[in-house]
TrEMBL record, chains A, B, C:
The gene is thiM. The keyword Zinc does not apply. Its EC number is 2.7.1.50. Substrate binds at M41, G197. Pathway: Cofactor biosynthesis; thiamine diphosphate biosynthesis; 4-methyl-5-(2-phosphoethyl)-thiazole from 5-(2-hydroxyethyl)-4-methylthiazole: step 1/1. This is Hydroxyethylthiazole kinase. Keywords: ATP-binding, Kinase, Magnesium, Metal-binding, Nucleotide-binding, Thiamine biosynthesis, Transferase.
Amino acid sequence: MFEKVFENIDRTIPLVHNITNYVTVNDVANMILACGGSPIMADDMAEVEEITSICNSLVINIGTLNDRTIHSMILAGKKANELGNPVILDPVGAGASKLRTNTVYELLNEVKFTVIRGNISEIKTVYAGSGSTQGVDASIEDLVTNHNLDEMIELAQRLSRRTGAVIAITGEIDIVADEKKVYMIRNGHEIMSKITGTGCMLTAVIGAYCGANKGDTLDSTAAAVSAMGLCGELAYEKLLKTNGGTSSFRTFLIDYMSVMNHSLLEKGSKIETR
Amino acid sequence: MFEKVFENIDRTIPLVHNITNYVTVNDVANMILACGGSPIMADDMAEVEEITSICNSLVINIGTLNDRTIHSMILAGKKANELGNPVILDPVGAGASKLRTNTVYELLNEVKFTVIRGNISEIKTVYAGSGSTQGVDASIEDLVTNHNLDEMIELAQRLSRRTGAVIAITGEIDIVADEKKVYMIRNGHEIMSKITGTGCMLTAVIGAYCGANKGDTLDSTAAAVSAMGLCGELAYEKLLKTNGGTSSFRTFLIDYMSVMNHSLLEKGSKIETR
Amino acid sequence: MFEKVFENIDRTIPLVHNITNYVTVNDVANMILACGGSPIMADDMAEVEEITSICNSLVINIGTLNDRTIHSMILAGKKANELGNPVILDPVGAGASKLRTNTVYELLNEVKFTVIRGNISEIKTVYAGSGSTQGVDASIEDLVTNHNLDEMIELAQRLSRRTGAVIAITGEIDIVADEKKVYMIRNGHEIMSKITGTGCMLTAVIGAYCGANKGDTLDSTAAAVSAMGLCGELAYEKLLKTNGGTSSFRTFLIDYMSVMNHSLLEKGSKIETR
């Protein structure tokens, strides 16, 4: 299904510029390497445009915002837009503070995003300037389940129409949508929420996949979401065999991404389209 | 012994606001998740008060101080005081530089702490504006052992009287004390000093436990200290079986916290009271 | 061969001051502990001189530069020079942006370095203000192989003559050289480039070894480079046995450094001199 996506990653080794938070940055760098890309982190205004210019894509993650990095995000985003490079937004904790919410709005005004990935409460905030965010995890009432799936798909497609971006809403069921097409992905395991950074790592993998597959954003994003979820399932199976806990799970999650390929994903992906 | 402490954590899933250092921040986030809480890291002045307001507790760790974050610590600390939320201080490296020592004094003047946790030389610095700190580890002459236990307990209780905080001094023997009662805890393993961040992680676990157990600070802190030490013992046993080294130990340490519960701690804790 | 180097580390437990990037800082701290040193991270202008003064060596890594930390690097570097402490430079990504390249030149003007370690494109940038840098990895055309070994040795020795520093160029073959003597080291495994931070970690180990072995910089650097490569080989062997991926490899890499000693290195090192 995603054979070409993987071929392009192997061929390109996409260089991904990350302006990201200091909590999960190491996992993000290792995950980009594991999925076949090459990471570069740079957040100073004096260099972000130059760094973006040598990269295949840009990932903006607002997990630990400060005044210095907000300006860098806008500068780098505009440059990536100018170059036609994919720009991915992870609105971590949008809704949890005015700073985060307003920064997301400022970014949406200044930068054209190729993909926006968040949990449902973050995506709601992006959409509406409303939505309840508890911490950086999806609020329990806000999980995407079979129950509210149609409503979430509608939200994703409306936001895609507004922004021109592919929208990825991750939760129990993951939705990847543009205006015309929707992927519903049922990979993943609930233990993924028991380590920090699975969202940030996924966004970075989307950045790598899209950086190597310009013009094929929807499929690249769906492939990344499904691959990440499948790695979570495989890592959980290995966890049980080794009597490990959440930190072993984190190790195995990155391990499986480092051996993921087209045929493994073909066998394990649980994707429907609409 | 600490059954209610664990029940409250499971029920509350305490959200812990961390203003912390960039060295161990990922371990801290994963450890908070492992112990049953939910972490949020935010250090910009523009959002710290708002973030603290949605959290159950605040952890201030001065491991990589800078001018920007010092102000955020004070703002967040005052807000948490106003809300009656527990505020935990980890005075990492206090005594190693004037910046750290003076920041600790400024924090003590501006913020009322619920718990202060450090090694003996850090706690001495907090107490006296003196004390020799080598790096961020306890100086060898300053380890809490059977030899100087009485003296250390007296120091802890005096500092508790001065500050109103529960004082946790960690070392070969851990002391957790308020004015009236003292726990002496003999869990732990010396290999814990061979990885970075065991102190920071413990302080964060204290933050989670206290956030879910307001009004039961002494017991919550003692439970956290004992649980962390027990995880260290179990992780070391597993290390021997797997022929691992210090990085495997780090993984196992977090693993064991993710499966820790009341009955495991009951069986393994080595606690005396005075 | 390096018996005395290891003896001095065990005896000194060198305290290493790191002004480094936030991507790999946790790995760097754990690797310093694993190799027998003690890390301290501090980057604020208000404390870096004081922190450097209590340390055995200083490691400057420009991986995530910003205006604030550049000044701190210069202040700390000058202080370490004044004290006669080894100062190690890791010019991460030099050549990738003007900020990085110019900062390296400014650092070289202001601070006398004891060791400079980078991949070939970084070292070329340091040497010539030119050189193509893709991301933070060595450009493929720029790997040190048997083919271009003589040329690289000449570059290293010229740069050593210009700067007075021991030069370590790491790649398929590692070169450690001063004006008079060259070590060629064939330890290591290609999977080391599939995790972030192997370069940063190596530079930090060099900082620890040199901090404990003042006046024996060339041998200390060669020992660190060989030990790191050997840990990579051993970690890869263990990876195969455990069906792991790149994140397990990272764990095992640090694990092996934590059990590395003189006799293990004696058996496994692949070093020639010229």
